What we know:
Blueprint: H1 9-89, H2 93-176, H3 179-191, E1 197-201, E2 204-205, H4 214-221, E3 227-228, E4 235-238
Parallel strand pairs: 1-4
Antiparallel strand pairs: 1-2, 3-4
Helix pairs in contact: 1-2
The protein binds zinc ion.
Amino acid sequence: MDQVVILNRQLELLTKLQTIDLKIDQLEEKKKQIPNELNKLSGGLEAFAKQLEALRRRIDEINKLRRKKEGELELERGIQKKAQEKLREVKTNKEYSAMLKEMELHKGKISALEDEILNYMVMLDEENEKLKGKEREFQEEQATTLKEKEKKQAQIAQIDGLLLEKAKARDEIIAGLEERPYQSYVRLREGRNGIAVANVIKGICQGCYMMLPPQTFNEVKKNNQIINCGHCNRILFWANS
Ligand SMILES: [Zn+2]
């Protein structure tokens, strides 16, 4: 647009104002997205933390079950020991074989409990290994998230800086604009999706994509007065194409 020669000062200022306002719109839109992006980052980390918490709870549960079985095992071993002592005091064969049967039963229970406990131990090893891996991943994720957040915060600061610059440039342009063209620009921007000033390419208004009458196009090409599009009413200028 720098090469474009606009002879009418008001029209020139309006095209500049339009360029700046679009840039401001863009920056504000970008800035508006950042809190969402920050929330997404925090949300991802929270979900990960919940996974870790669930894994830790599972390990606690397994540990509880293991301890319960260990308690039962100790009890069984105690009973077994007492039975063994009693066995020495047994007087009759009948009593003896009954005691042996009972001891066999306890032996079976003990061996089953030992198997169960062993299974829990294997499970605990696996889950603890998994937890260690997840905790490492979580720390990495945490560091990445922090960096990303800092980047986003810096982006906000950068956008704010640019917005301030643009606002200053905008004020300067508006200071040079007469009341009527400025008010017309403001109304058009409100009613025309932010685009009040439209370029014309090959006779076509780039605001509404309608063909201008040849005579209007010839007038617009001169860039020496404010002409509105007959279709969308936008302010027209010609950028040499
Ligand atoms: Zn138009």
